[in-house]
Amino acid sequence: MSVRRLTLIAIWLLLFLAGWRGSTANLNAKPKLVLGIVIDQFRYDYLTRFRSDYHGGIDEMLRNGADFTNAFYAHVPTVTAVGHSIFMSGAMPAVSGIIANAWYDRAEGQVVTSVCDWDVKVVGGSQDERGARCADSDPASPRRLLVSTVGDELRNADSGSKVIGISIKARGAILPSGHRAAGAYWFDDVTGNFVSSSFYMDALPGWAEEFNRENLPAKYVEQKWEGFPNWSFRAPAGGKAPYAKLPASPWGNELIEKFAEKAITGERLGQRGPTDLLTISFSSNDYVGHVAGPDAPEVRDMSIRTDELLGRLFRVIDQTVGMKNVIVVLSADHGVAPTPAVDEANKMPGGYVLADVEDAVQSALNRKFGKAEWIIPGGGETAIYFNHEAIEKAKKTDGQPVTQAEIFGTAKETLLTIPQLHVARVYTREQLDNGIAGDFIARAEMNGYFPRRSGDVNLVFEPAYVPGTAGTTHFSPYAYDTHVPVLFLGPGIRPGHYEETIEPNDIAPTLATILEVQTPSGSSGRVLSEMLVR
């Protein structure tokens, strides 16, 4: 081989190695922005069923990102608050204390929501007088979340980092962004504003006030959903919340994306030096899905629109931060059950549970031990809270005291022997306190059990059976509720399909590793090292 050819090869190798070292250095550099996206009620099969319709942000993540095709939640109930709390904490409800959207708090003597906090005030919107129970519209904070999040650990490592959370729902904005966020913002259906709470700030920042002055909700409630003329987004006349129906529309997600754009420019996220975190939860998919069900054309349309909105958001971020400097992770807080009508048409098992669980147990206890207010109502669809004071006062016919074990046992027997209830499993507090072993359902129950907040009796319905008479819902340990997307995109992420079974709990420790910060305090997940380029 000639000297000239050897020289050219040597030069080519030097240039290649120099480029490779530069590429590796860039991949190992910390991102300027982490974008955490939750699509509320978005099953994994929405990625595959509607794949040919995606040409925006979801398409970008599927083509150039890491797609974990078998991500399953491992807790119950699979509801919004729990999924959002896991997203950036990696913590099971048994550790985080976020056991449901709402639960009966024995210390407070009322049903509370996951983020309700009467020690703070709503900032930028309306606030009612304190009621007998917490409501979704009440003042809110992350104080009921007992663990740290990725955002908290990011701020602990560098106080110059900013963390922002955005959603229609307060819990969707607050729980992923954590305790040390600069702000969490959600939609107030009375004023049409994005609001926050005094936990974060005394007044909305100028960019948020400017957005609210545009009064986009007033325009959106008049818009028609092309292809779906039966949907109307005007609230009933005379009500105090003129925008109450807007979340169940495509325009709810439009508002979220536009507000996120304002936050990126207003807070200069990813443009100041330290790594920032923006969490966004697209809530409208959930509102529509509850009404229409996962097989409805409305859900397909919402999925396509969400893809388009993410494409728009990525373009804005590319112009301001540069997508090469951004790590994006996308998941969902839960899936959803098919509607009973679809199951019936497909000759599949499933249906509505028409009998009332609490009424059935109350009647059985009245027959066996005499009339009393045995149950505290409103504990949740799959949890029963008993009135411990009534149990302590109760006597059997022979004068002996009635024990909690007898109450729990009677409730369990009742639930399992009435066919109309379609109850598959029942777990009492006694069982869960002592720990239960078994299949994926038993493990999900243990992962969801937090003694001070959980019910006394917890039940699991048969697959595809849901309470109610219309629409559908989610809360079960079955795959239609637990199988969700987990997608990563950005520098240092090896694109491809990863088929090993994982949990969404793995997202938080993986981000902590990428960011070189402490793993969130309650995390039970593992680092998804198979996709990391090091």
Low-confidence stretches: 7-11, 13-27
Largest sheet features: 10 strands, mixed
Q: Count the beta strands.
A: 18
CATH topology of the largest domain: Alkaline Phosphatase, subunit A
**Count of helical regions:** 20
Which structural class do the helices and strands define? alpha/beta
**Measured on Cα atoms, how large is the radius of gyration?**
25 Å
| Physical arrangement of strands within the biggest beta sheet | 5-8-7-6-9-1-10-17-2-18
Task: Give the termini separation.
Answer: 36 Å
CATH superfamily of the largest domain: Alkaline Phosphatase, subunit A
Strand content: 15-25%
Your description of this structure?
The chain has helices at residues 3-28, 45-49, 57-64, 80-89, 93-96, 150-157, 170-177, 206-213, 216-220, 250-266, 284-292, 297-320, 340-345, 357-369, 388-393, 404-417, 429-434, 440-447, 479-482, 507-515, and strands at residues 33-39, 66-72, 102-105, 110-113, 122-123, 163-167, 183-187, 194-197, 276-282, 326-332, 351-353, 375-376, 383-386, 423-428, 457-461, 465-467, 483-489, 496-498. With 534 residues, it is α/β, with parallel strands linked by helices. The chain is 37% helix and 16% strand. It folds into two domains: 31-337 and 476-531, Alkaline Phosphatase, subunit A, CATH 3.40.720; 356-417 and 423-461, Gyrase A, domain 2, CATH 3.30.1360.150. A hairpin with a 6-residue loop joins strand 7 and strand 8 (194-197). Strands 5-8-7-6-9-1-10-17-2-18 form a ten-stranded mixed sheet, with helices on both faces.
